[in-house]
Amino acid sequence: MFVHNEWHTGGSGTKLNWLRAAVLGANDGIVSVAAIVVGVAGASNSAGFILTAGVAGLVAGALSMAVGEYVSVSTQRDTEKALLEKERLELINEPEAELEELAVIYESKGLSKATAQKVAEELTAHDAFAAHVEAELRIDHNNLTNPWHAAFASAAAFLAGAFIPLVAIALPPENLRIPVTFAAVLVALIITGTLSAHAGGAGKMKATVRVVAGGVLAMAITFGIGKIFGIIGI
Q: What residue spans define the domains of the chain?
């Protein structure tokens, strides 16, 4: 029997994957900028210093997310293109072996040997390349992920999350900056934790507690560090 040993990829992703990426990007923006502004606020009462640090963190984080996502998706896209070209050449040079491979794939999914062979033959006659890349590689060759789209989406998600702590610490009077920021971030993290759990199909309570606990811990640590630096005058 022909052994199916092609490397499978996740393809261009689904709407669920995009939702998960957007939620994670927004969560990164919330926690990163919240930790920065709370830490600076712990060391200084200067609104100018706090906002400068927050805006710098917002811009740097968004650019970092965009570059990271662009590189990651570009690498994935290059890999998918290489696999597609390899499959194209195999169909040209080894059509019989590829037909047998396709039949084995459908047989492994529960079809009888005769039915799997028939399905493979009909799909090959209709569009051999599309049939093989869908069954073997699980790649939609007409809809590969665009790295620029991914980069912009990642940056936008980060910015959307980062604005929350930035606005929360900029608007209240000095004595309410920290509590208002903690409250705003807490609410935002509850929302992103719930959405993250929904996107991943996990339990909402457990996922939300993890997200909130991580964000609160990050703010508490940076605030404490800021306080120490403020006390020793650095």
A: 18-228
pTM (2 decimals)?
Answer: 0.74
Pairs from 46-50 (Cβ < 8 Å, separation ≥ 24): 47/170, 47/174, 50/169, 50/170, 50/177
Residue with tokens 């992920």: 145
For residues 162 and 29, is the Cβ–Cβ distance under 8 A?
yes
Q: What is the rounded distance in angstroms from the CA atom of residue 17 to the CA atom of residue 66? A: 17
Amino acid at 91: L
pLDDT by position in tens, the chain (length 234)? 333 444 344 444 455 566 777 788 899 999 999 999 999 999 888 889 999 999 999 999 999 999 998 998 899 888 888 888 888 888 888 888 888 888 888 877 878 888 888 888 887 888 778 877 777 777 777 777 788 888 898 899 999 999 999 999 999 998 899 999 999 999 999 988 888 777 666 677 887 888 889 999 999 999 999 989 877 655
Rg (CA), the chain: 25
Torsional sign, CA 223, 167, 60, 150: positive
